[in-house]
Amino acid sequence: MSCVQLQLASLILEENYGEIVKKVCVHLIKNGCRQLRALVVETNLKIDEVRKALCILIHHNFVKFKSIKRGIVEYHAEVKNVLLHIRYPRYVYCAKTLYGDAGELIVEELLQNGQLLMSQVVSKVTQRLNEAIEGGKVIDQTFVRDKFADLVNTHFLMRVGNIQSEDSMDTTSTIPVLDIKEEDVYRIPQCMQGSGVAQLPGNKRRRSNDADEIGRNKKMKTESGIAQDSQEVAPDVGIYWTVNFNRFHQHVRDQTIVDAVSGRVDKIAAEVVRTILRVSELTTDPGAMMTTPISSYEVFQAMPKELNLPKQTLDQYLKLLADDQLEFITKAGESGGGMYAINIFKVVKVLCTAHIESVVQERFGSKCFRIFRLLLLKKHLEQKQVEEFAMVPAKEAKELLYRMFSEHFVALQEIPKTPDHAPSRTFYLFSVNLNEVSRMLLERCYKAQTNVIFRREHENSENKRVLEKSQRVEAIAASLQSSGANADQTAEIEEMITPPERVQLDKLKKTFTKLEHSELQLDQTVFILNSFIHSVL
């Protein structure tokens, strides 16, 4: 982990969770695994403050713990999960696009709280929807529960590990062991299925497992003094849910692939690729470099009916995509009219290369861009060959090559003819190491995200007075409107902000909008670069 990533993680934690949580997590990032007593001594914080900070960090999956000896626990930080915090708005937007307002609020609640019971999420989201809705309509909890179930069935949400049963736990240890069976990760408990929250008739064995699990957690909660009143205990107590980031990443990656195909071919080809991805998404591992092969007949059956695409035209599109030089789609067999799979590695590599080429063109100009693409195509070239193939004068080609070399976009390899490495008897070959360039650009993106946060903090501190005044005026105006005041009274309050202050506020609003857009665009680049680096590994 680099210093840039540490600085960015520190800013994210301080901005969203406060100084104490940041101090504890950053100390774990810098120093590795630590015990509670060591954390208290080394951070100079009170033991209660460290415990609360660790609870927050564990709840949000920023810190994990493990038992090294009987009664001794070590904590370690997960930096990659902290850096994902910048991507939270994208997760919420994906949920809204796929499942509407209810799906958006469900994912938002889980991201804000880290882990929650299904009953808590359903109750909170239903309340928020009813507060926002107009016209006297009331949304029932069943609607929200169905949306939650849809998110679970498509693996966007998953269960967190439960405390092991008393039979399997070590009775001499006070350290909880979280465990969950693979088949239970995406299974909603029986008590939360159907139209009611009470226990429903159904499969006796599954119901018994849920009842045992919930009863065990109820007992532990009561013994610890957290829930003494049995009437207030939720029906699904102890069964917590969280967001499955890998599934969201898979969806974002698939959408990026669809957009790339749409730009290269057309929208119908993009729909063909979208259908293949949709049919194979639950059977393909999120980290796989090739989707599960499916037949053209299955693709035809799953295509949107409104397109009214004939089977012959679909086969032509599949052949066109399979024969394309970028090889987005690979033909894996002849059965069922032809078996087709999407080569995720090649698509991600093409997208990553396009991002890097865009950076080269913007930073160095069109001639450097031509040289860079030439090196990607030819792999290794001498300076004289670069001059000839790129049709650039010798002096300019030398200057451009060494400029890119100095900023690590181009690598240089020496191949001596003789053991003495004499320059006159040595070949100097220029090339592009895509993996190294991706890592270098990734660090620059993290640095840029850090600068965006610094800039936002600077703008907030410089304009603190006018922002606070604007918030007070808006609060007073909202209070008057809710109490039934007329428009003249509200306008009089709003006039407390002078014209110069309004100009300043408008300028600030535009600045914050630009910073938000920059942050989202940077995160998109980070996502593509990270996807390529992980695919190479």
What does this entry look like structurally?
By secondary structure, this protein is mostly helical. Helices cover 62% and strands 9% of the residues. It contains 21 helices and 13 strands. Strand 1 and strand 2 form a beta hairpin. Helix 7 crosses helix 8 and helix 14 runs antiparallel to helix 15. The longest helix has 38 residues. The two termini are 16 Å apart.
Write a brief structural summary.
With 537 residues, the protein is mainly alpha-helical. It has 21 helices and 13 strands.
Q: Over all CA atoms, what is the radius of gyration?
A: 28 Å
How far the N terminus sits from the C terminus, by CA atoms, comes to 16 Å
Overall SS class: mainly alpha
The major β-sheet equals:
3 strands, antiparallel
Question: Biggest sheet, strands in spatial order?
Answer: 3-7-4
Number of strands: 13
- Shape category: globular
- Helix content percent band: 55-70%
| Model regions low in confidence, pLDDT < 50 over at least 5 residues | 195-209, 218-231
Q: Helix count, per DSSP? A: 21
Strand percentage lies at 5-15%
**Average residue-wise pLDDT:** 83
Q: Strands, helices and their partners?
A:
Elements: H1 3-17, H2 19-31, H3 36-43, H4 47-59, E1 63-69, E2 72-77, H5 79-83, H6 88-113, E3 116-117, H7 118-132, H8 141-153, E4 157-159, E5 162-163, E6 178-179, H9 204-223, E7 240-243, H10 245-264, H11 267-280, E8 294-295, H12 296-302, H13 311-323, E9 329-333, E10 339-342, H14 344-364, H15 366-378, E11 381-382, H16 383-390, H17 394-406, E12 411-416, E13 426-431, H18 434-462, H19 464-482, H20 487-494, H21 499-536
Antiparallel strand pairs: 1-2, 3-7, 4-7, 5-6, 8-10, 9-10, 11-13, 12-13
Helix pairs in contact: 1-2, 1-18, 2-4, 6-7, 6-8, 7-8, 10-11, 14-15, 14-21, 16-17, 18-21, 19-20
